[in-house]
């Protein structure tokens, strides 16, 4: 378990040649968790989280999305890593010396995959608190596919949960969208998927977006998430729509995405894994009825 609880700083991410930064604050009071993430580049976006209640605001467009979702989804990927006990079945942990990030002393580790269906990661862990200060996702040849690191961070700040709670209540003038998630499973929805070795399904939900006036718009989207204890692969299934959907593959940093038509369905598979792994997931998905 990590020892840190309250910190704030600026996180800089480099993905596919594009650099972006976010201002982040994380507070804990007992079992209550509060977060604020402000995107500092491109379109302004603010994310506030109290436990599993997440508000995502686009101030310029005056749009707010209010949803219940897993806490690990709210933060940038650097801060999501909470590996489970199966992690070391799939990765070998190697010490890789010491370093400094944002003025803090850190121990450096490499998680080296034991096969070719996932990427290696190099981690910088702050010595006293255990806070993850930087992570690099590495290609098999050692290239850095993407990186996220604090440029400055203060650990052990005084918690300010009210700053998050107050902001979550200021939705006047916003168009509020409220996606509703209902837990389900692929089998119940008529699908079958045997995951790639080392991955297991960790969630499956059906999402419908409420337009804010009590009505729903758009088609429901089924999302199944698979994890190997460190990284995730998401499989999205929705009705195929002519003119909107176009098959193809994309790679941005470590994130690989495949989109294809399957009869009257549209399937999107994406994750921070090699394209060959994404393809395996897509080919393993079959319609049972």
Question: What's the SSE blueprint?
Answer:
Blueprint: E1 7-15, E2 18-29, E3 32-39, E4 45-50, E5 53-58, E6 63-68, H1 87-90, E7 91-101, E8 104-113, E9 120-126, E10 132-138, E11 144-155, H2 161-168, E12 175-183, E13 191-193, E14 200-210, E15 216-227, E16 232-239, E17 248-252, E18 255-262, E19 265-271, H3 275-284, E20 285-287
Parallel strand pairs: 6-12
Antiparallel strand pairs: 1-2, 1-11, 2-3, 3-4, 4-5, 5-6, 7-8, 8-9, 9-10, 10-11, 12-14, 13-20, 14-15, 15-16, 16-19, 17-18, 18-19
Question: How much of the residues is beta strand, in percent?
Answer: over 45%
Major sheet size, sense and barrel closure: 18 strands, mixed
Can you count the helices? 3
Radius of gyration: 20 Å
Q: What distance separates the N and C termini?
A: 43 Å
> What class, by secondary structure content?
mainly beta
Fraction of residues in helix? under 10%
Low-confidence parts: 73-81, 212-216
């Amino acid at each position: 378990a990590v020892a840190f609880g309250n910190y704030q700083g600026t996180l800089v991410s480099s993905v596919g040649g594009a650099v972006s930064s976010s201002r982040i604050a994380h507070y804990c009071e007992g079992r209550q968790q509060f977060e604020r993430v402000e995107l500092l580049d491109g379109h302004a976006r603010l994310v506030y989280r109290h436990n599993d209640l997440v508000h995502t605001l686009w101030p310029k467009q005056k749009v707010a999305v209010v949803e219940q979702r897993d806490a690990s989804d709210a933060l940038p990927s650097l801060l999501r890593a909470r590996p489970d006990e199966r992690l070391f079945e799939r990765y070998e942990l190697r010490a890789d010396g010491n370093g400094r990030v944002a003025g803090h002393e850190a121990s450096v580790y490499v998680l080296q995959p034991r096969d070719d269906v996932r990427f290696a990661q190099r981690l910088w862990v702050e010595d006293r608190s255990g806070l993850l200060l930087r992570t690099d996702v590495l290609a098999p040849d050692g290239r850095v596919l993407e990186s996220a690191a604090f440029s400055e961070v203060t650990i052990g700040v005084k918690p300010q949960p009210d700053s998050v709670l107050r902001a979550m209540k200021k939705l006047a003038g916003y168009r509020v969208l409220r996606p509703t998630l209902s837990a389900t499973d692929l089998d119940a929805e008529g699908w079958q998927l045997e995951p790639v070795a080392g991955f297991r399904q960790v969630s499956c939900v059906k999402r419908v977006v409420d337009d804010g006036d009590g009505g729903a718009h758009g088609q429901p989207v089924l999302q199944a998430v698979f994890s190997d204890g460190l990284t995730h692969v998401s499989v999205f299934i929705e009705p195929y729509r002519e003119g909107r959907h176009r098959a193809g593959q994309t790679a941005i940093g470590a994130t690989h995405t495949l989109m294809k038509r399957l009869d009257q369905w549209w399937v999107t598979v994406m994750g921070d894994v090699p394209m060959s792994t994404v393809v395996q997931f897509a080919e393993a998905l079959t319609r049972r009825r």
